[in-house]
Design a protein that fits this description.
Layout: H1 5-10, H2 12-58
Length: 60
């Protein structure tokens, strides 16, 4: 960030654009994390169900 007001005004468009790109990218990253969390949670649920069926099979 520029240290003085004139430099800040001179670079305002560049700084604004960089900030907007950062926000866009971090939101994309968070969406990716959430999708992976949901996928892993579903996988864990499926594996747990399969393991439950396995336990029922060997207990018979």
């Amino acid at each position: 960030m520029p240290g003085d007001a004139q430099a800040a005004r001179d670079y305002a468009d560049l700084i604004r654009r960089d900030f907007e790109l950062y926000i866009r990218d971090i939101q994309s990253y968070f969406r990716c994390l959430e999708a992976e969390r949901a996928r892993a949670f579903e996988e864990a649920r499926e594996v747990s169900e399969e393991y439950g069926r396995f336990l029922e099979t060997i207990d018979q």
